Amino acid sequence: MSSKKRVCIIGAGMAGLTALKNTLEHDLAAVAYERHTAVGGTWIYMERKAGESEEDVHSSMYQGLHTNLPKELMGFPDYDFDTNIEESFISSELVLEYLQNYAEHFKLTPHIKLEHEIIRVRPRNEGWEVIVHDLKSDKYFVEFFDFVLVCNGHFTTPMYPATEGLDSYQGQRLHSHLYRTPDIFKGHNVLVIGGGPSGIDIVHHIHQHAEHVYFSHHLETEPRTDFMPNVTQKTDIQRFTADGAIFKDESSASFSFVIFCTGYKYTFPFLSVDCGLNVDVNWVHPLYKHCLNINKPSMAMIGLPHQICPAQLFDLQVRFVLAYFAGRKELPSRADMLAEMETDMQERWASGVSKRVAHKMGVKQFDYYEDLAVTAGITKLKPVIGKMMKACSKKYIFELDTYRQKRFKVVDDENFVQIV
C-alpha cells in the first residue's frame, strides 16, 4: 500500500482534469471518478434520451456553440491549444479535443475511473468515506481518502424563475440546458428569457429560423440586436398568459415557445449533511475564499465562481487548496476564516449581490486571482490573461455579430496582439 495521502476527485471535466494533474504533481495519490463514458464534462454534446429527467442530462452543450472567450484564454496555464488552429473563438468540439489531449499529455487516464458515480461522501475519523457505484458492473464499493476535491460542475440542474401565471401558459417550454438545435423553432414566435451569454447566443442562433424572437432581460445596457430584424427586446415578465406574456412595461406578446436561459442550481446530492456545507439558494457556505470547506478543510469545492476565466480559475483554485493539503502552508484559524468570509459576503450583499449569484466575480475576478496566489504563495496568473480578459469583456453584448471573427496572439507573459 502506498503511504501517500489519497485524494478523491469528483468529476473529470475541465475542473476535475486540472485537479487530477496538479494533485499528482504534488506527490499525492489521486483518483478521479466520472459518471459518464468520457472526460470533458459539459463540453461533451449529449441528447436527452427517452425517459431522462433534465438532471440526467449532464451537458448543456448545443450544436454550433463557439466559445465566447478566445482559445488564448480558454486553456490551462501550462498547456496551450494547438497552434495550427487559426481561429481564436473555437467550436466546442475543439475544446473537448483539447481536454482529451490534456489528459493524454499529462498521463491522467490511468487515474480516471469512467462510468463511476459518487453516491455518498461523508467524514470518517480524519478522512473521508466515499461510496462509489460502478455503473458498468452495477456494483457498489467503499473507498477511503484523506482529501476530497468536488469538481462536479454547475450546469446540470436548471433554475427557473417563479413567475406569475407560468402554469397557465399553454405553449412549449424548455431550459437552455436542453436546447440543442434551432430548427424546431422554424415559423414560431419564441420568447427567450435571460440576458447572460447563453441567452444572447441562443437568440443569435435561432433568429434565422424563428418567425419572431422576443428577448426578455434586465441588462443595464441593451445588447445590440439591429442586425437581427426579427428580434424585439423586452423588459422582465410581469405575468404569463395562456398564449404569451405581459411584460413589466405593460406591453404584451404571443409566442408558442419559451426558452429559459435563467441559470442553474448548485447541487451536491452526494454530500452527507455532516460534511458541514450548506447551500442557501446558490450560496455555498461556509467556504474560505469561495473554495475551501471551513468546517472540514480537507474538502474543497472547485469552480463555484462565475463570470471568470474558467480553466485559469480552476487551475488556480486547485493549486491554492493543494498548498494546504500538501502541508506547504498552514491555514488560518477557523474563526479567522469565518470572519473573512463574513466580511466578503457582507460587502457582496451590500452591493446588491443576491444569494442566487453569491459567487459571481466579474470585475472582481482579478483581485480574487491575486488574493488566492498571494495567500497561498503560489504562481500567479500571467498578466496577459487579465489584459486579454478586459479587452474581450462584454463583446458578446456590443459586437455579437462580429466579435468571434477576431483573432489574438499571445506575444509573451505580459502582452498580446489582435491579428484580425
UniProtKB/TrEMBL annotation:
InterPro entries: FAD/NAD-bd_sf (IPR036188), Flavin_mOase (IPR000960), Flavin_mOase-like (IPR020946), FMO-like (IPR050346). Its cofactor is FAD. The keyword NADP applies. Its EC number is 1.-.-.-. Keywords: FAD, Flavoprotein, Monooxygenase, NADP, Oxidoreductase. Belongs to the FMO family. This is Flavin-containing monooxygenase. It comes from Bactrocera dorsalis (Oriental fruit fly).
